[in-house]
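Why do we bother with holo predictions? Because pocket geometry can differ from the apo form. Keep that in mind while you read this record for glutamic acid.
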Amino acid sequence: MRFVTRFAPSPTGPLHLGHAYSALLAHDMARAEGGTFLLRIEDTDTERSRPEWEAQIYDDLRWLGLSWPEPLLRQSDHLARYDAALAVLADRGLLYPCSCSRADIRAAQSAPQEGAPVAVYPGTCRGRSMESRRPGDALRLDLRRAFRAIGRAPLCWTETGPDHAGAQETRAETLIPLSGDPVLGRKELATASYLLASTLDDALQEISHVIRGADLLDFTALQVLLQRLFELPTPIYHHHRLIRDAAGKRLAKRDDARAIATYRAGDATPADVRRMVGLS
Ligand code: GLU
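The structure, written out:
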C-alpha cells in the first residue's frame, strides 16, 4: 500500500507545539515509509479562517523543515463539491434542517452527561423536511436512517495510535447515544462541516493513514459511517498523544506562549522544538 498522510490545520489561529508534533510525526512517518506527506488547509469555517493565519502556517511548517507537494488542497476552493455531496445525502432522505442553538441543545438535555463536555443533540428538529429549511439552518445527518442505509452493518477500522491500537468496531446502538445527529452543513453560509469535508478529501487525496491528535478520536466512527454512505475506502487511523502544558492542560490556539511563531521569533531552533515535543 502506498503511504499517504496529511496534516490538515484550520487557519483560525497560530499553530502551537501540539500542531508541530502532529505535523512532524506525520512527516516522519511518511518519510520512514517512503510515502507522501500532504498539507491541506481546512478553511470551511469562513468566518474564523484568515489568510494571515494561512500564511503563518506555511512559514511555521517550512521553518520546522517540512515540505509538501504543491498545489495543495484548500477546502474553500472546493465548496461546490461538498455541496454536491450534501445534495446526494439530502436526496437519499438522510439530512434534515436544524435551527437549534447550542443553548437550545443544552437546555433540552435533562441531566449533564458524564464525560461529555458538549451536550449531545437530542434530535429536536429530526422530523423536519428539507423543504422547511430556512436561511441560517444547519443540516444534520439522521444517524438512524444513515445506519439503515448501510444495512445496519457495524463500522470497522484499524487504529495504530498508542492508545486503543488494533481493530475497532462500533455499532449504531453505541454511536447514536454518544454522538447525536452530527452537523454536516454549517449554519453559517450552509457550507460543509469539518466532518464531511475532511472525509471527502481524505478519499479524494487517497490518504492511506490519518495521523492526528487524540482529540479527534471521537470523529472517527462518524467519518467511517460517511465513508460507508459514499462507498469510499477507510484509511488507517493513528491518533497520537496530545502535547500538554506544565499544568497538564491541552494546548489551545489562544496559547500564544506555545505558538511555533513565538519559538521561531526567539532563540529556539527547529531541533529544539522537536525535542520539546519528544521527537528526536
Ligand atoms: N482541521 C482539523 C483541526 O485543525 C484537523 C482535521 C483532521 O486532522 O482530521 O483540528
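The domain at 4-108+120-277 is CATH 3.40.50.620 (Rossmann fold).
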